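SAMPLE LOG
Freezer: B-3
Tube label: C17
Construct: single chain, 66 aa
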Amino acid sequence: MNKQEFPPGWDESRVKNLLAHYEQMDDDDMIVEDEITQEMTGQTLMIIPTELVPLVRELIIRKTTA
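STRUCTURE (predicted):
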């Protein structure tokens, strides 16, 4: 079995906590979270083709570590 690799600053506990957070949310809570996120400044939500996700992640990593 391969060793699980996490992004910098993440570990198994953090992933489990994030999963638990979203698994406990009902539809109304998810809608409210989406609405709040859309009002945030300095960030943009986008739909991108799935095959480009690895490239976008790499660009974000480069930007945050630069």
